[in-house]
Design goal:
CATH architecture: Alpha-Beta Complex
Helix content: 25-40%
CATH superfamily: PurM-like C-terminal domain
Largest sheet: 7 strands, mixed
Strand order of the largest sheet: 2-4-1-5-3-6-7
Number of strands: 7
Strand content: 15-25%
Distance between the termini: 20 Å
CATH class: Alpha Beta
Radius of gyration: 15 Å
Number of domains: 1
Oligomer: single chain
Length: 169
């Protein structure tokens, strides 16, 4: 089976798991737990594939993210757990019905980048209007940041390949 079919099956599997767990419904108590607007930029903060978790770095990154939330610089925040980046993105896409178009890190195998997390990392989204302010804020606070892509109307796209619409999966 090729990588695209493997990835499509994994997307379907993760979406089914999240729906079964009820994570496709918006949580009214969480202001930052779903994608907000088509066109918002998506960033990866921290390190997905570090050799080990550095608790000091993780604490500092969490403080900076909390500060960015208080300053209204981010519209969505999702910690990346050991289940990986793809599940984190699908977790915030499902409740809103919005999708994402991302590009993986060309220096890391696609499956490793999408499905592994050995470090401290989070996904955040930001409106185009606040994009530059967020990037400067993260840079000033010495938080590693990588542009992943943007929020779509519902399509799930990874490295220019479509894996369906979030509402139809």
């Amino acid at each position: 089976m090729d990588t695209n079919n493997t990835l499509k099956n994994k997307v379907n599997e993760i979406v089914a798991k999240l729906r079964n767990a009820g994570e496709d419904k918006p949580d009214p108590n969480e202001a930052f737990n779903m994608l907000d607007h088509k066109g918002d930029m998506i960033y990866l903060l921290g390190e997905v594939l570090a050799n080990d978790v550095d608790l000091d770095k993780q604490y500092r990154m969490n403080k900076v993210i909390l500060s960015a939330m208080r300053k209204n610089l981010v519209s969505c925040v999702q910690e990346i757990t050991e289940t990986g980046l793809l599940e984190a993105l699908l977790k915030v896409a499902l409740p809103s019905g919005l999708g994402f178009d991302i590009t993986t890190d060309s220096e890391i195998p696609e499956e490793q980048f999408l499905f592994e997390n050995n470090g401290s990392a989070a996904v955040v989204t930001v409106s185009i209007e606040k994009d530059e302010d967020l990037v400067h804020f993260l840079f000033d606070n010495k938080i590693a940041v990588m542009t992943l892509g943007h929020v779509t109307k519902g399509d799930i796209r990874i490295d220019d390949t479509s894996y369906g619409n979030i509402r139809e999966i």
